[in-house]
Amino acid sequence: MSYVDEVIEQITKENPGEPEFHQTLNEVYKSIEVVVDANEEQYRKDALLERLANPERQIKFRVPWVDDEGQVQVNTGYRVQFNSAIGPYKGGLRFHPSVNIGIIKFLGFEQIFKNSLTGLPIGGGKGGSNFDPKGKSDREVMAFCQSFMNELYRHIGQDQDVPAGDIGVGGREIGYLYGQYKRLTKQYEGVLTGKGLTYGGSLARTEATGYGLLYFTREVLKANGESLDGKTVTVSGSGNVATYAIEKAQQLGANVVTASDSTGWVYDPEGIDVALLKDIKEVRRLRMSDYAAEKPSAEYHEGKGVWSVEADVALPCATQNEVDIDDAKNIVSNNYFALVEGANMPTTLEATKYLQDNGVVFGPAKAANAGGVAVSALEMSQNSERLHWTFEEVDNKLANIMQNIFKQIEDSCNKYEQGNDYVAGANIAGFEKVAEAMQAQGIV
Ligand code: NDP
Ligand code: 2IT
Prior knowledge:
The chain contains 18 helices and 13 strands. By secondary structure, it is of the alpha/beta class. Among the domains are: 55-188, Leucine Dehydrogenase, chain A, domain 1 (Rossmann fold, 3-Layer(aba) Sandwich), CATH 3.40.50; 208-368, Rossmann fold (3-Layer(aba) Sandwich), CATH 3.40.50.720.
């Protein structure tokens, strides 16, 4: 059995009941096998793959809070500090009822390689809670965030671990979390990113993941002789990533005809109205069904179905494993040119293989959605130097970072003869830097 297969088997056995973590472990370790084989003796001796797959630290804690009826509620909080070889732990917080340790570990593991690809000095971490912000009052969300921070503050700091947003955590939640951190520690420091612009946030952080996704997609299409101009694009999701992906795709000349949430999806052949979408989702916190009710050209459908629409480019921007084998078959039979992942691990392993085998150009999440964390790192730089950069300055740096990520992937594909398997290219490029830093720092 190869070293990679041995470690996958061992880690899977030692961490039962964590299918999402097993999935990313399989994807990443199988695709770096070519590098591992070339260094097998040293890596084995140093147990490099075992160390990389075991988080440096996992924190799990109780989060009690009082709801509007005076009832005490109890949620579970997590922070997984996965790897600090190249910088302080960095990665978002997810508030969603599905959150468990396996989900946080899959996200944290992916984050190690994503952060490495940005070229910026940030390690990998992730956290969150099974708290569901949907339907809660502002006061309830604040009470939860304050209680969550009452424990988390002990484990984070601007040079230790810097959380940010993810599903269910946006500007409102970051504000409440930041206020409580400051109250507990008396420190006005860049301990969280995605902060509001009046208290240390960076311009373009809100837009960064979606915009970055499109800057990356532009590179992918260019390398394959295509461009976004005049293309039809389908997007899933209607949160932070989806909204700004749609906005930038339109600015680059594409027509985006879908958006969705966990209850249904909208087909709007005239193109999604981003101003209306922002008002519905960011201001009024309503559903896609409300979008359809207010936009005459839009059709609303219950359930899943975005990938049944004919288009050129698919951008899944909602959640993990939302593109399964049936969706992949639809995408192939609808003659899509490319699928580029905005969400983290939105495509199952089986669907990824099917798309790649059938000639759909595939852009992997840890490269394609790295723009969010990259601008988070730029927010950390601005906080450290106590200065603010202009929107254009941050946006230009973001575009350069996404271009550079694609170049690293292409270089790795060429060096290890992986053709245009960008999944392999991204995993290899992300891994090589972290592996070298870990080896240089001894057995820790
Ligand atoms: P938001 O909370 O802003 O939006 C999430 C969107 O996805 C909503 O439309 C939500 O619908 C939908 N969604 C969430 N869970 C499910 C589910 N189980 N089934 C179907 N739809 C679902 O989150 P973000 O936009 O920030 O995150 C979206 C994805 O992008 C996630 O995978 C996240 O990890 C990833 N990501 C986010 C980054 C960021 O900077 N925010 C950076 C990089 C990646 P509903 O409202 O009905 O729940
Ligand atoms: O998945 C991700 O990269 C994020 N949710 C953003 C993390 C961050 O620290 O900005």
